[in-house]
Write a structure and sequence with these properties.
Helices cover 25% and strands 20% of the residues. With 467 residues, it is of the alpha/beta class. The chain has a ten-stranded mixed beta sheet with strand order 6-5-4-3-7-1-8-9-2-10, sandwiched between helices. A four-stranded antiparallel beta sheet has the order 11-12-13-16, covered by helices on one side.
């Protein structure tokens, strides 16, 4: 089951073949956009990249204005993922376009392992972009350390109210709700486009919807739609699951509480995104701004008893993922059903800006017709203590998912140790079992494994991990 490597096309070429966006409305091409006139084939676009924290799919109720702009008038990626369901590794993949086993940030303590010369902000700043960061950066990053390659920044020490910030090199406390502060700092950065003619890159990262999930005061008592769970909340029989899932204690009530708290924090994000749209419209820059919105990882609402991220189950690694760029032909409202991921963001941005990266990237530009048939998703256990999620990697396709757990751990620098022995395996038929209730490898015979195609999947996973 090798990866389907379709021929690359230029960013002025085909944006997605019919197969890549099957069942979607027609996706325009860069060639069509260029033919529409000089404005459509405009100079390098501005870039607005919005990354929320711990936001799973199925949270669009809280984002009506965001969805109306970026999804209904742009592109909704229906099969969006992160390649490591944890904050710092995922954000490092956003910056670099690389899997965590390549960029080295395998856990939240290893943020300084990222090679800053490989980041999208470095390439853009070097190419003459004005760069800004507003909100959370990387876990374990020292607040006093200025984030490299950002000309202007308000770096948040994660909190919801009255937080500490590093603002352009000065550490200070700023009173107020941090999503609002992120919004206002971003708006001020955008305002400077009225006099600074350089294209710009704004990396905007509110703390929502991470725990403790404190809502803005005006949304504290907002009633959210009732939710009755899904078949995996909780799973009645977990005897076929790994030990840490067998011992999980999350309930439907836990899931309901987490979901409600997340939705309330995201209402303020929705307000901020609307403010960005209004500002871009006032500046006359709405059409030629490439906007990308993604969650840095998903979150489990009691699925299989789990109430966190870090697991190889769909709620943890599937995320909302939207894109808009009217001048690039991406402003009409389409659905793209390709398997896409956070590693595709940096290649997409650089492609739109006409920049060729020096360092290798694992992702591919979403502005081409490239379509993968599966994705590598991976996770490392930090430390040698008992409990918690073991190290695992997973082969994720549209119709199936195969996962291996290993005797491997990492230290605070992301260095891996252990025998690498496979300790447990899972296989799910995602067509007939989308909630991953039946692990078909539990007590399977060699003949049954052969019939499921496990040897080929295991070989494919090993190749992905080694590449």
């Amino acid at each position: 089951m090798s990866e389907n490597r379709r021929p690359q096309v230029s960013r002025r070429g085909f944006l997605g073949s019919a197969a890549a966006v099957a069942a979607a409305t027609a996706v325009p091409t860069f060639a069509q956009a260029a033919a529409a006139g000089p404005a459509a084939a405009a100079a390098r676009p501005n870039i607005l990249l919005i990354v929320t924290d711990d936001q799973p799919k199925h949270t669009e109720w809280a984002l009506p204005k965001t969805v109306a702009w970026l999804a209904d008038q742009g592109v909704r990626f229906t099969d969006g993922h992160v390649t490591t369901p944890l904050c710092a590794p995922s954000r490092s993949s956003v910056f670099s376009g690389r899997h965590a086993h390549h960029h080295g940030v395998r856990n939240n303590k290893a943020s300084y392992a990222l090679d800053q010369s490989t980041t999208v902000q470095k390439y853009l700043k070097q190419a003459g972009y004005r760069t800004g960061l507003f909100g959370k950066y990387l876990n374990s990053w020292t607040l006093e350390d200025n984030p490299p390659h950002f000309e202007e920044f308000a770096l948040l020490q994660p909190a919801y109210t009255d937080a500490r910030w590093n603002v352009d090199g000065t550490v200070q406390t700023i009173n107020g709700y941090t999503t609002t502060i992120v919004k206002n700092r971003t708006l001020a950065f955008l305002d400077r486009a009225a006099t600074d003619t350089r294209p710009w890159f704004a990396y905007v990262t509110p703390y929502a919807s991470h725990g403790p999930r404190t809502p803005e005061a005006k949304y504290a008592d907002t009633v959210v739609p009732e939710w009755n769970g899904r078949p995996s909340v909780p799973e009645a029989d977990r005897s076929d699951k790994p030990g840490y899932i067998k011992n999980a204690t999350g309930t439907l009530a836990d899931g309901r509480r987490i979901r409600a708290e997340q939705l309330r924090t995201l209402l303020s994000v929705d307000d901020a995104v609307q403010a960005f749209k209004d500002k871009l419209q006032a500046l006359g820059q709405l059409d030629n701004t490439l906007v990308i919105y993604i969650g840095d990882n998903g979150f489990s609402w009691g699925d299989h008893g789990w109430t966190a991220k870090s697991v190889p189950y769909r709620p943890a690694h599937e995320v909302p993922f939207y894109l808009s760029w009217p001048a690039g032909g991406l402003g009409a409202g389409t659905q793209d059903h390709r398997i896409v991921a956070n590693i595709d963001i940096a290649p997409t941005i650089l492609d739109a800006a006409g920049i060729i990266p020096v360092a290798p990237q694992d992702g591919r530009s979403l502005l081409t017709g490239y379509s993968r048939d599966h994705l590598l998703v991976e996770w490392w256990k930090q430390g040698t203590g008992t409990g918690g999620t073991p190290t695992w990697s997973s082969y994720v396709a549209k119709d199936e998912q195969y996962t291996e757990y290993y005797d491997l751990t990492t230290d605070g620098n992301g260095t891996v140790s252990g025998t690498g022995q496979v300790k447990f395996r899972e296989y799910y038929d995602l067509v007939n079992d989308p909630h991953q209730l039946v692990n078909k490898l539990y007590q399977a015979t060699p003949a049954q494994e052969q019939a499921l195609g496990i040897p080929a999947l295991a070989a494919g996973l090993a190749a992905d991990r080694a590449s």
